[in-house]
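Q: dTDP-3-amino-3,4, 6-trideoxy-alpha-D-glucopyranose, please. Structure only.
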Amino acid sequence: MEAYTNFAEVYDTFMDNVPYDEWADYIERMLKEYQISDGLVLELGCGTGSMTELLSAKGYDMIGVDNSEDMLEIAMEKRLNSGHDILYLLQDMREFELYGTVRAVLSVCDSVNYVTDEEELQEVFRLVNNYLDPQGIFIFDFNTEYKYREVLGDGTFAEEREECSFIWDNYYDEEQGINEYELTLFVQSQEDPELYRKYQEAHYQKAYTLEKIKNLIERAGLRYLTAYDAYTRDVPMYDSERICVIAQEYGK
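A: Structure for dTDP-3-amino-3,4, 6-trideoxy-alpha-D-glucopyranose:
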């Protein structure tokens, strides 16, 4: 079961509770604190381009990288409708390539958790450092161990909409730090509204501690700057479910 294929079609529907506008405002404020108010910005794991579009509207020259062709197709439809000059690249963040450097890199919606091997995540961070301008900024978020263990755990979640529904079976292996969730989707047929097609996908994420993330950042050559509880200015706590990290280019 491959991730983000059929789910791409209904991804935005089920993500309508994500406050993308607030997150975009937060990222813009952070970037401006480091004197980045325009120029090239890369988003890793851009998905359907929701954040990419918002930051493009704020005046940044956006590049979006994702390894799901289905998700990028939707992102390019949004680009066609908005008229924004966004470059989308079908690439794996573990080995992405750019033609030059960028002023900032960002990654939201726990995309880094999908890199389940520590050495591979360190390589992602090394590539980020390589493609950042001198003193460039890297902003990303990640899901915490607490969220996987206490919030998701071995639970089942479901949501029903008129045009689509899903069942999410979650399994967390605390010893391995791997979170697996199996999605069963029921998507309404565009040809026959009475017909719903069933799809299944499996997703895997790795639980990282902030200390581990900091260690991987520094081993990759970046300078760790700070971390916040989700998209706030609060210090991360033991029960933080999402943490935002800010790092900086530190020489090549």
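A: Brief note, in case it's useful. Helices lie at 7-14, 20-33, 50-57, 69-82, 118-131, 145-152, 210-219.
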